[in-house]
Amino acid sequence: MLSITNILRCQRPITKQISVRILIRNWHKEAIPVAWEKPEKGWTKLNFDGSSKGKANKASIGGVFRNHKAEFILGYAESIGRANSTVAELAALRRGLELVLENGWNDVWLEGDAKTLIDIIAKRRQVKSSEVQRHISDINLIILELNNCLVTHVYREGNRAADKFAQIGHHMKKPGIWRNVPPDELLAIMKEDAEGKTVLRLR
């Protein structure tokens, strides 16, 4: 029978081998450069995000509008009660589009980090969930009212400003809207986005 000391000696090299294997596997992952992109002159860009936390599905939404100079135009955030992440993402986009109509913007770029939902909206697909389909139908009706609309996916690293607004929404008792000047929590992210900062994402 091996003593306790011998057992520990046998285990140490195995632990090291596992660590080395994990590192080697990470080294071979492809790094994708991700950056927020400015819209063309005359266009308004909306980045939106939804958040759902814990078993209670406490949800919130947020979004940010910027122009071709990456200047902050408007931001919004609010808590929406209980909802899963899919509904939260759609609610964030729907609220953003309502603000698009209220402000009379006609050439709009919509961007979010939930790729499946972006594909559903861009390709006008049908879904089984009646609640999700209701949101999608409302979104598509608003999009039809716009002169031009671009819908794209971006990885989370390029959607940090919208994510920050969604996180702010968790702590709000009533809907919030910021015009012309973003909240202090967003200043650093806004500056980095405007400068074209690239973040590497490992696949």
From TrEMBL:
It comes from the Eukaryota. Residues 47-167 form the RNase H type-1 domain. GO terms for molecular function: nucleic acid binding; RNA-DNA hybrid ribonuclease activity. InterPro entries: RNase_H-like (IPR053151), RNase_H-like_dom_plant (IPR044730), RNaseH-like_sf (IPR012337), RNaseH_domain (IPR002156), RNaseH_sf (IPR036397). CDD domains: RNase_H_like. Signal peptide: none annotated. Pfam families: RVT_3. Transmembrane segments: none annotated. PANTHER family: OS05G0353850 PROTEIN, REVERSE TRANSCRIPTASE-LIKE PROTEIN. This is RNase H type-1 domain-containing protein. It comes from Lithocarpus litseifolius.
